[in-house]
Design brief:
Layout lengths: L2 H5 L2 H8 L7 H19 L1 H18 L11 H13 L2 H14 L10 H22 L2 H11 L5 H8 L3 H19 L5
Helix pairs in contact: 3-4, 3-5, 4-5, 5-9, 6-7, 7-10, 8-10, 9-10
Length: 187
């Protein structure tokens, strides 16, 4: 990616890609790793590869419908990825239930401070996975976009094509259920 492309916002890149499809590659460069990590956490690494490819293919095909007044395409891309993940809902629930039973997380991770944190929290991972598996899909989607992807309520609403009020209520219910499973710890 050249220096000029780095400074162009996502909306402008998408607008330019109508005449020059190569411009769209910059969006892939910006967001593919993030989308892959999100999908891998939910479905495992192998399926995440497919989700990333399908997400960017769908986004490329629909780029003409993107509202280029939005400078960030991140919520739009996560919305597409979340829809694709929903098609694999059973697989996600199986992974969460397996983690709940075994405590073994299928996502490989680099050996750093994150691993130390995970080892300390491993006992809680099983309980949390069970809680996540029992959430309705819409509640789980909202919770994971906020917790894992650090998205604002407005970004989640845009990603999932729901109102901010719906985001708030789903997040509240998801957190309440997770707290009930984990005790009264802060979520």
């Amino acid at each position: 990616m050249d220096a000029e492309t780095v400074e162009i916002d996502d909306g402008e890149l998408i607008r330019r890609s109508a005449c020059d499809p190569e411009q769209f590659a910059a969006l892939f460069d910006r967001y593919a790793l993030q989308i892959h990590l999100y999908a891998a956490r939910r479905l495992g690494v192998q399926t995440a590869d497919d989700i990333v490819a399908e997400t960017f293919l769908a986004a490329f095909r629909r780029r003409g419908t993107y509202d280029t007044s939005f400078a960030l395409a991140r919520p739009w891309l996560y919305g597409i990825a979340t829809t694709l993940i929903a098609r694999h809902r059973r697989q996600e629930e199986r992974l969460l239930r397996a983690l709940s039973r075994t405590g073994i997380d299928p996502l490989p991770e680099a050996l750093d401070d994150t691993v130390a944190r995970r080892v300390a929290a491993q006992g809680r991972d099983r309980e949390l996975a069970g809680a996540l598996a029992s959430l309705p899909r819409g509640h789980r989607d909202v919770l994971l976009l906020v917790a894992w992807e650090d998205m604002s309520y407005e970004e989640v609403a845009r990603a999932l094509d729901i109102s901010v009020g719906t985001v708030r209520s789903r997040l509240h219910r998801a957190r309440k259920k997770a707290r009930n499973v984990l005790g009264d710890e802060e979520l």
